[in-house]
């Protein structure tokens, strides 16, 4: 595993060298103007691989290379990496209006919009470009530049070869996909940390899909900004991740601010970051996050690319997404290994694992690349995910009911029995309330203790009510909310009645 090959000041691992040789073999076999795509997981070292490709390509062909990125931070990082490989390069940013010194460089790093503007204005013309490398190639902003490089070979690099726009599949622009090492293999070889995943049951029926094919910020803010969900998030952090360096991903600025307020009130060390923070504020916040062991950073998708903080111990997905790319990017932020960090925690508050599968599960990228429509059509919908979800009482809560042997109650099974006997369906909830009241009573000294225990069953009550609403085919939001309130009221009443009878 530790075999490395010295190249200038930098080193490559065996799997990176293998991919490199495959890429060069494909470049040699391809016609001029061919477009190739290379997939490697987040944390696998894509920038290292393509920096060595640039160095070797310039050396072998004498032609120039353009590296395209979509963010200024990525341009700077890429430029530094290329310099480390001994490649003299120039960044074409908003300050570069003309390229009079282009003969001094064999490689240019450019932001998409900036280069597009300069080429449109015809103020910049780069001669002798043999290879164009596109970082984070799944973004569609790069397509507008393809017409300027029709004679060059284009190499797209991405962790997820699935277009950010479902109407513009990547197979339309790239002829071939080269798949690199899998996440599973990189974990096995100790290049990536292992993810310990915890799922929380969340009802997403009120989320709305936007034209991008993902959930809208407005509907996400409404769901994740309410007190119930904020309370659930705080409980999840306290139960699973307390004291760890934590990165929370949200889908809206409002939600992220509410998360910040909630954690601040609870006395935790927390900051909020979004794209409205200027460069100085951003730098200060990220420095604080890096240097604070128990730091919690609540953010809005701004840290999914170009952000590398290996000390992150917990990733909380406080949002749902239907974007496979975003799913991998968010979890990938916690996957860096350190000498004292071999594992990290993922808390999923958006049914994302149920939608896409485990982060380190095998995935057929060739199939996704060639048949994206088929993949997108078969992503599980939220109602199916919720129907299949099975609630398990968290260990810490189960301990509070230690005196009870059985705490399970199967709503679906009970409904079948009641239905077969021709009884009214509401008997199912009455039996469930009785079972809940009994276990509260068994584990409490008095009626007040029992009612405190009953309050902690809110998650399970919500789950049982939802199962019941599926059985009777009335799954409206208002009906379920009314049922939950009615259930909690009847449970309190039942507990009082049981204690009165006991006395």
Structural overview:
This protein is an alpha/beta fold and 503 residues long. A seven-stranded parallel β-sheet has the order 5-6-4-7-8-3-9. The protein has a six-stranded parallel β-sheet with strand order 10-15-14-11-13-12, with helices on both faces. It is elongated. The N terminus is likely disordered.
What's the overall average pLDDT, rounded? 86
The number of E-state strands comes to 15
Radius of gyration: 27 Å
What share of residues is helical? 40-55%
Question: How many alpha or pi helices?
Answer: 20
Question: Which secondary-structure class do the elements indicate?
Answer: alpha/beta
Shape: elongated
The neighbouring-strand order within the major sheet is 5-6-4-7-8-3-9
Sheet-strand content, in percent, reads 5-15%
Largest sheet: 7 strands, parallel
Contiguous uncertain segments of 5+ residues: 1-9
Distance between the termini: 70 Å
Which labels suit this protein?
seven-stranded parallel beta sheet; alpha/beta; 503 residues; 15% strand; six-stranded parallel beta sheet; elongated; disordered N terminus
What layout of secondary structure does this protein have?
Elements: E1 4-7, E2 10-13, H1 14-29, E3 35-39, H2 46-61, E4 64-69, H3 72-84, E5 89-92, E6 107-111, H4 112-121, E7 129-135, E8 153-158, E9 176-179, H5 183-188, E10 194-199, H6 217-224, H7 227-241, E11 246-249, H8 253-265, E12 270-273, H9 279-291, E13 296-299, E14 314-317, H10 324-332, E15 343-348, H11 352-356, H12 365-370, H13 372-377, H14 382-388, H15 395-400, H16 411-420, H17 426-442, H18 447-455, H19 458-471, H20 477-502
Parallel strand pairs: 3-8, 3-9, 4-6, 4-7, 5-6, 7-8, 10-15, 11-13, 11-14, 12-13, 14-15
Antiparallel strand pairs: 1-2
